[in-house]
């Protein structure tokens, strides 16, 4: 391993010899002294070289340095309050250019599409790097919560013999002499863990939707955060799990990255209080209408503007960034959502809205096979095609429920990013398969 | 939430009223007293009901109980040393059949193929449930190691515009009006994190191989455990990371599940000592030949029997279950493996063998663009098709390397399972897409 000190650890190091490695951010090639800003995965550092009067190979190397080149420098660390960049600098003793760089085709003001073409350069921008360190912290906090609460991690297959949601958005795969489909969600397979007696499960993995939308909130491949648990009484139990997870995740992010996030995004991460506000959808629509917005839909669903409006109301009334909209109409929910005993027109389900945008759908699932079959038929589905799934309910199954949540959506809304692409390592859309 | 006590927590609970939920394992319906063995995700429990002399609705319910039905029972917990099953039993006060079960189509001696048809029932078997709790612990230990060592978690796309490994094993996806391919590994994209300045990354996610093999060690979809890190000097640094991860994972598994594993699989989990033995492949072949086994291959590769033989040698000589075979010939390694300075015929790469089977390949990657391009051409690849990948190396990139490892293979070999299917939640093979 190259013996190097991470830049973030230099401030706490004592003055003296040190080796650092990273890439060249900027070069100021002045007459008497040369400055290089070096970056690595942990931060930025000023390197300095006073030019010698005669032959000076180090100065020549620095003058020829291209931005983005990867270098290793050995030199003398000096703490100096006058240095704006962290109060330290390294006097260059040796410099090795490990990998030269062509000139970057993108700059800070380059449009998002071209930046995505050069995503590996775009990700060098410190705030972009920060997004994925936040993602790491968020996921690890969630998984730690799950593991500490005896959830089993599952990896459900992404290759399926049939659709799990709507057929319209299904990617078809040539599978030897036949066909397969890409999973639109782990729905059926995480439910399978329930008759399997796993009790409580989680998965963070890819899901695929052949959705030709070009909105800022859609992708053809996305990371789905899923959990499912047994022996619930209603969707209320799922919401309780869900809000505890959000608290665990946001607490970890705030602790580890709160200051960085404030500096880079101007956002103070708020750890939400529990319980999150819960508003039945019908009431939410009334509230939104009273605020002067009539949801322009013919079905019973909310629309994005309605979600923004109800979020604004919740923020004003309860000072909360989250709201559970509950009891969606059966007409707009999948067949496997359980319906209310007293009113089969509404389901035991919810959407979780965060900063005005839906990030998740959860529900109690219908586990009674006769009811489930009837609801499938009700939706015009062919029980034949669902046979393998319906079997899960014929051999004993506990009451259960869960949710699925878009990872990049959470990040986008947490950090106030303008679109999903910024919160995705490598975005996939209808016209985007590269790099 | 149904107020229930997990069975594993009953032993430490005091005698008195308790509610338990789970599924019926067995019923012994005797004249004077009825016994039910109840199972939940945490263990098994004896329920008891002395028959009343006259009308006894509880006895009637028990008599009608089908194996596999999910029930909730409220009753009196009693500690009693004479009860073989954990020294406790619950005297049934109330019993509710929550979900009835058809008779299970599988039994303990059912063949693996039919068990896979009914995987959700097969997973109820305690040792199968244990496999996935071990998986959870293993993954969480790995991720905790990575997070504590400042690795960034990435989710690379599974939809690609071109092949990342061999074209022969590529699944093709209809992608709107065009085509996409399923990622065979996150290779290119985890390498992308290096010029992106991420430093060190990891991912646990699915990978896809259109491999028509039917061996016990292959699947068309598998979970790949990947890591990649910057500023290495050689593949030795990758091996060092790799062995530390194995130690962290096995330590956690042994601590949490050591006793259960010994009981269920008759295996004592050994935490490996470091460094693992390292043997260059050419030497390994000599050793194997001396043991009387000539590898029947025309290329420079090892074969499965050779791997078993060298593992047996290592076990005898060093008492170790792991061995790194290093320095594979360039002829049998992908173009992106770095070759030795002194001998371009061998690569800075390794396979990790565990209990006689390969579980992982690792290497230092070639990061010098001219060399990389030449090696690609050398392998008959079209640099045009690799353009997006080759670009990663033109704008500055640190020396780097990493490995990919099959999750189910590790579990299979750790627990002495006969095939991958047993170690996979839902197996996918050339003729297996259901359930």
Automatic annotation (TrEMBL), chains A, B:
Its EC number is 6.1.1.12. ATP binds at residues 358, 406-409. Pfam families: tRNA-synt_2, tRNA_anti-codon. It is found in: Cytoplasm. The keyword Glycoprotein does not apply. It is an enzyme of class 6 (ligase). One of its GO terms (molecular function) is aspartate-tRNA ligase activity. Its main location: cytoplasm. It catalyses: tRNA(Asp) + L-aspartate + ATP = L-aspartyl-tRNA(Asp) + AMP + diphosphate. GO terms for cellular component: aminoacyl-tRNA synthetase multienzyme complex; cytosol. Residues 132-435 form the Aminoacyl-transfer RNA synthetases class-II family profile domain. Residues 187-190 are annotated as: Aspartate. Keywords: Aminoacyl-tRNA synthetase, ATP-binding, Cytoplasm, Ligase, Nucleotide-binding, Protein biosynthesis. L-aspartate binds at residues 165, 209, 361, 365. One of its GO terms (biological process) is aspartyl-tRNA aminoacylation. PANTHER family: ASPARTATE--TRNA LIGASE, CYTOPLASMIC, ASPARTYL-TRNA SYNTHETASE. Belongs to the class-II aminoacyl-tRNA synthetase family. Type 2 subfamily. Homodimer. Catalyzes the attachment of L-aspartate to tRNA(Asp) in a two-step reaction: L-aspartate is first activated by ATP to form Asp-AMP and then transferred to the acceptor end of tRNA(Asp). This is Aspartate--tRNA ligase. It comes from Terrimesophilobacter mesophilus. The gene is aspS.
């Amino acid at each position: 391993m190259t013996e190097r000190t991470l830049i973030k650890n230099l401030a706490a190091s004592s003055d003296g010899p040190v080796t650092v490695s990273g890439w060249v951010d900027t070069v100021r090639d002045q007459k008497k002294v040369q400055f290089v800003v070096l970056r690595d995965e942990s931060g930025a550092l000023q390197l300095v070289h006073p030019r010698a009067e005669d032959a000076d190979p180090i100065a020549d190397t620095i003058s020829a340095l291209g931005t983005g080149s990867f270098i290793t420098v050995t030199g003398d660390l000096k703490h100096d309050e006058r240095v704006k960049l962290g109060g330290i600098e390294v006097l260059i003793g040796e410099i090795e250019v490990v990998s030269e760089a062509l000139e970057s085709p993108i700059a800070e003001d380059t449009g998002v599409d071209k930046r995505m073409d050069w995503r590996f350069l775009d990700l060098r921008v410190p705030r972009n790097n920060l997004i994925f360190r936040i993602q790491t912290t968020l996921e690890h906090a969630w998984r730690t919560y799950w593991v500490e609460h005896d959830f089993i991690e599952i990896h459900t297959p992404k290759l399926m013999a049939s659709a799990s949601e709507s057929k319209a958005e299904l990617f078809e795969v040539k599978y030897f002499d036949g066909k397969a489909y890409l999973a639109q969600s782990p729905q059926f397979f995480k439910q399978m863990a329930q008759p399997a007696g796993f009790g409580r499960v989680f998965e963070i993995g890819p899901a695929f939707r052949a959705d030709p939308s070009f909105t800022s909130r859609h992708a053809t491949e996305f990371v789905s955060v899923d959990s499912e648990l047994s022996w619930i009484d209603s969707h209320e139990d799922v919401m309780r799990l869900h809000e505890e997870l959000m608290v665990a995740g946001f607490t970890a992010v705030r602790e580890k990255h709160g200051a960085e996030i404030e500096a880079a995004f101007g956002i103070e991460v708020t750890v939400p209080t529990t319980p999150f506000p819960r508003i039945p959808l019908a009431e939410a629509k009334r509230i939104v209408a009273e605020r002067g917005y009539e949801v322009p839909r013919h079905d019973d669903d909310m629309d994005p503007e309605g979600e923004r409006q109800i979020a604004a109301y919740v923020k004003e009334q309860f000072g909360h960034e989250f709201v559970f909209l509950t009891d969606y109409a059966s007409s707009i929910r999948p067949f496997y959502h359980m319906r209310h005993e007293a009113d089969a027109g509404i389901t035991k389900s919810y959407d979780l809205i965060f900063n005005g945008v839906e990030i998740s759908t959860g529900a109690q699932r219908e586990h009674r096979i006769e009811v489930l079959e009837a609801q499938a038929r009700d939706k015009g589905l062919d029980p034949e095609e669902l046979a393998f799934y319906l079997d899960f309910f014929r051999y004993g199954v506990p009451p259960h429920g869960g949710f699925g949540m878009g990872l990049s959506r959470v990040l986008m809304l947490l950090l106030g990013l303008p679109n999903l692409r910024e919160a995705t390592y490598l975005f996939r859309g209808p016209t985007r398969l590269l790099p």
